[in-house]
Each structure stands twice: as structure tokens, then as C-alpha cells.
Amino acid sequence: MTFPFLTIQNAVSFEASRVPILPAEAWRQTLLENCAEGKARITALFGETMTPDVTRVYCLLGIDSKKHLLIGAADFFGKNPAYASITPLLPEAHLFERELYEEFGILPVDHPWLKPVRKQENHSFYKIEGEGIHEVAVGPVHAGIIEPGHFRFQCHGEKVLHLEIQLGYQRRGVEALMIAADSKQQAVLAESVAGDTVIGHGLAYCHAMEGLSERSITPKRCQSLRAIALELERVSNHIGDLGALAGDVGFLPAAAWFGRLRGDFLNMLMELTGNRYGRSFVMPGGVLFDITPEMLRSFIRRLEKALTEVKELAELFFGASSVLTRLGQTGVIKQETARSLGAVGLAARASNLLRDVRQNYPAGIYRAHNIALVKMSTGDVYARARLRSLESKRSLQFLRERLEDLSADKIAQPCGMSKKGAMIVSLIEGWRGEIAHVVATGAEGEIRRYKIVDPSFHNWMALSLAMRNGQISDFPLVNKSFNLSYAGHDL
Amino acid sequence: MWDILKNRWKQGYRTVDFPSKVEMPERFRLSTANDGEPQLVKALDARMQKLFGRSLKLRVVSAGSCNGCEMELQALGNVVFDLSRFGIQFVASPRHADGIVVTGPVTKNMALALKETYDAVGEPKIVIAVGTCAINGGCFAGSGEVLNGAASTVPVNLYIPGCPPHPLIILNGLLRLLDRK
Known about the structure:
Number of helices of chain B: 6
Mean pLDDT of chain A: 90
Number of strands of chain B: 5
Low-confidence stretches of chain A: none
Number of helices of chain A: 16
Shape of chain A: globular
Low-confidence stretches of chain B: none
CATH architecture of chain B: 3-Layer(aba) Sandwich
Radius of gyration of chain A: 22 Å
CATH topology of chain B: Rossmann fold
Distance between the termini of chain A: 38 Å
Strand content of chain A: 15-25%
Strand order of the largest sheet of chain B: 2-1-3-4-5
Oligomer: heterodimer
Order of helices and strands of chain B: HHEHEEHEHEH
Largest interface: A-B, 51 and 50 residues
């Protein structure tokens, strides 16, 4: 007997009381049945303390083929509740269950690797022993200018048998701060979840707040401007990553050129928003600045030029046989692996899984205007690099279309008060992949629970598996090809 | 490929000059009047300047930063800003460094690693806090998980404000510290 979960829509609020609360075992069975044969995937799995004795665990599922989002919950009682872990049957749940255990003490019995996610304690690493096996420990302070994380390799000679990634050094307690902060601080906090995805996380927050408010009409011009900022962010990051990859394989002309080109997009964002990463541009109800007619003409002209440059650069980079040899067949993630890990965004699309919020669960301007999507099938570093250049081209074309049909309209319309006892799921396709913000309001319309899932949270394990049986010297390259967020994972 | 490179070579690209004064465009300007420039940086003393003035090697420690400041520090190394023309470089180990750059509000989980990295740098050494979070915790101030800025853990010589600071602002701070601007 199956108990159906509630079907919901992206960025549309619903009464929290409509979420079906199932007995723990039935909830687990429904979840597994929905996810059987890869039909649905876990978008978020998180707890909320209802009373000191009751913890409610929500599961948000996405059925990409049907464009459905499902939500269902179960209550767990007492101090140390337990249930049979779903990870052995559904590997994509592994990090969510560890998080649940760490934050709420709900024990997933028979979880294969129940270590803390963010707490700095009990760091026992998976160990391989035998002749010629050695261990390499890296971090949390790295050689490059990057965020902190600890990597533990089990190697035989140059070959990596296993890589375990321990994060948590960036833990700032964003979710708790979101509840305590006032609305202006909340916007800043949401943008600071990951500083490279300012617009993505900012927009997820805004869609959530607008959906929750009692009256909210977001003007069309404002929606277009938001999409323009989001796509500029995507292009600048993709181009920056291509530059870093070029640097890692030692192809310096392309590295220098990609690096400069990235600056062009950041500078456009700065002209539009006053900040190279677009901070404080998107606000609940609208955007902070409008685009002037001169700026519009200049942007169209410069984007046209940038598109030519991206094409030329891609020809230069992917036309070099030494680059192709280095990138091809390095750090492979097969489609089945990506599916079982619940990979999202660019990493999934490089492994032949078309997962994109802009198409599957569109919100804002993407409801009216489709963006052409691309995917690759090989799942190696080459696929992830190539996909970045192809997506950049599509985004630049989309940007041009949006700039050309900007409607005359207001850029902001204040939101009303938040609905009481409501919930909302807000998904945004950031440049890394699916960003999920889930918000629940209390009896006074105040925020009761704010859950953030960064795409990196789904994808870190894919990096680990991509390194299996590869050379340890491939690590910088494979790592860069994913370019996951430490801060977004640690919150 | 050769043709593409040749075309680029002909066009050329110039590294930016250090601007003497930057005017904020009208649309972003704050309404409050700004009288006089506040003193943000005090240059190092003569001995430190003699040591580091023409060659400064820095090690970056990210301690809870959102990656915004890191990206701007990385951008300092590209062809546009080209930090190394001033004799300043980011190095891979604290043992090679004359000082550290701290970003982020300093999370409890990173405090030990930050302290140990600082201790690994030989004396005399400097500490530069980059970004709002490293100054006082920024938007994360007051969270139980952070220590509200770099000064909580290491003594700071220079604060560079911004969220994140533009590469030219970081450059400006560094050059003022070395009394070269």
C-alpha cells in the first residue's frame, strides 16, 4: 500500500499542513518506491524540531521526466530515534542521512559510513592496508588560493584506490542565522552561502520570499534583469573554470585569455549592479538597479564580441591535441554512477543526464522563455570542460535575446506580509547546478525553518569516485573540472 | 590555432595602470556626504619596509570565506592586474611566506589551522585581513560557529574592506602598506 506524497510546484507556496505525515516505515517505503529505477531523485532531505520530543523529517523528491516535485514527511519521537537506513538501497541519500544524524540524532541503522558531515570530531578515515599502499593527506590549508577541506588518498604508487573528502571547515551556521536575521540581513546571508553563486542563491531566496508573501507580482522587466544577472554569473564562472583548467594542463595562452574574458563578464555585472559578483542586486520584490538604454546598447555590442571570442578561444583550447589527450578519459563518471549518486547540474549533464531546473522546474522568466540545453555523454574532464564552453555560448545567445526584448516596466514591487503556516520550495539552476531553498513559516508568518541545499552537496561524492583508479597527479584537474563549493556544502 | 594566436598578438592587451583616483558612478553613490578620506592604512615601519618593500610573499588562508574574496585574490594574478609586477606573490607554503592573508570570519573549525599556519611563518611576519568577514565577521557576526574576524586568532597589520574587495582595492591596500603609493 502506498501513501502518496504531495505534488508541489517550484516557487509556489502551499499550506504546511497539507504535507502528508506518514509513519516512519511507510514514509521510507514511499520514498524508496518513488526513487526505484531512477524515476525520482532526492532533492532535499532534512529535519525540523517540532517540539523537544518530536522531529519531523521532510523528503523532497524531483521526478525530472514528469517535471513533478513531491514532498512527504515523517515524525520521529523521543531522544534517540532510529530507522533502517535508505543509503544501502539509495546511495544518493548518504550525505543527507549523515547530516540528519549529526543535527537531530536520528540514527539510520546500517548506514555504511556514518561519520560527521561538518563537526570536527571522530575523523577516522577509510584505510586500505597492504604492501606498497600509502596514504596522502592534503588540507585543510591548500597550496592554492582556495577554500579549506581535507582530502585523504589511499594510493598504490601513483594510482588512487580511494579518496575520502572531509569538509566542515567552512561551517558558519547560515541556516540558524537565517531564522534570527531580519529580512535585509537574510538577503545578504543567502548571497553569502557561496560567494561565486551570489545571484543563484540570492534569487532562490527571493523566489521563496515572493512566493510566501500574501501578494506579490514580480514585474516582467525585473524578471528579465534577474535572468540577465544569473546568466552573466554562469558565463563568468564557466569561462573562469576553463581558464583554471587551461592553467592546470599548462596551456598558458588560453589560461591568460580565458582569465581576461571572465573579467569582461564580471565588469558587465559590476556596471549593472555595482559589484563584480552582483551582491545586493536581487531583492525580494524586484531588483535594485535598472539598466539604462546606453548600457543596453553597449551590453549587446560587447556580448556579441564576447561570443566571437568564446568561439575562437574554444577552438584554440579544444583544438590542441595535447589538451584533448590530457582531458579525455580522465576522471570519468559514468551515467549510472552519476544517477546513483544523485548528481545535479553540470556534472550530471556531462554524464548524459539532462538535469536542469531551467527546463524541468522553471521559475521566473524561464517559464516563458526556454534556454537551449546541452549535454555530453563521456562524463570525463573533457566533457565537463566542453560543456562549459557550449553552455556559455547558449547563455550568451539567451542573454542577447533577453536584452533585446526587455519590456518597459517597473523593476520592483514591494512584497506583502508572509503567509502564516506556509511552506515553499524554491529551486534555481545556478552555474553548478540545482540550488534548493526550502522555507517554512510559523503561526505569525515568521521563518520557522530555512533549509539550503547547494548543488555541491549532491556532487562531492562524484569527485571522490571520479578519482578512483586514476593517477594522483590527475586530482587538481579533476577537482577543477567539478569546481565544487566548500562553503555551499558546509553552510 | 596559430592564426588565432597571431591575431591576439596583433591586438595585444594592456595590463591596467594603477588608477590614481576612482570615481564611483552616480547611480551607486551613497547619499551621505563623504568629507575627507579616512585613514585606513598605516605603512609598515622602516625596517619592515626594507625587508618586504620590494619582495613580499604571502600565503592565503581561507577561514570560512564564501569564496568571493578568494576569487578576487586569484584575479590579482591574471594578465589584467598582474600582481607580480609589484614584487608581491602568493606562495604555496607558509614556510615560503613573509605573511598570511586571511579571508572569512574565522570559523571555529578553522581557528586551529589558521593559528598553526600563522605559527609556521618565520618572524618577522605580517597579517592582512581581506574582506568584510575577516574584519568583524561581516554578515556571519554573532553566529555561534564563527569567531567574528581574523583578529580573534592572529594579530592583524592591514584590513582591506569590501564584499568582496575589488582586486584594485586589494592592490591599493598592499601598496599603501609597503608605502609605495
